[in-house]
Write a structure and sequence with these properties.
Helix content: under 10%
Number of helices: 0
Radius of gyration: 26 Å
Number of strands: 13
Strand order of the largest sheet: 6-13-12-8-9
CATH class of the largest domain: Mainly Beta
Distance between the termini: 82 Å
Oligomer: single chain
Length: 133
């Protein structure tokens, strides 16, 4: 009883959507097709815990490092709660100054808010950064 079976599977990715099709050929054809699965690029963001705004070209500015975020908002405060810096652009980072004057070495508080581009989820973070010389 020799049944000649031919099996194959294929997949397609189109506009971030993924679908698998499996086919088994024998005396009765069997085909199975998956649901569409959407591939999302998650957002990634992180903050350094210290920076040195000494104009040496390394760690001179503080801000988020990330991808796939929108509606970005970063605020930097001193220990008295005074707003020192605010940005709505992930490429615009804090250079360690307030009103054009260098701030003192120390610890500063930041708040961060963004929206993930693909999932539309909100991201909120609060932390501290140490300004070193």
């Amino acid at each position: 009883m020799g049944v000649n079976a031919q099996n194959k599977a294929s997949y397609s990715i189109e506009n971030g959507s993924y679908r698998v099709v499996a086919v088994k050929h024998d005396s009765k054809r069997i085909e199975s097709t998956s649901n569409n699965a959407e591939l999302l690029n998650p957002s990634t963001s992180y903050f350094p815990n210290a920076f040195t705004p000494d104009q040496d070209g390394s760690n001179d500015k503080f801000g988020a490092v990330g991808i796939n975020v929108e509606k970005y908002e970063l605020k930097i405060f001193n220990r008295w709660g005074e707003l020192l810096f605010e940005s709505n652009n992930i490429t615009h980072k804090w250079d360690g100054t307030h009103n054009g004057t260098a701030v003192a070495v120390g610890v500063y508080v930041y708040t961060f808010f963004a929206i993930e581009m693909t999932t539309r989820r909100s991201i909120s973070k609060t932390g501290t950064v140490t300004l070193l010389t």
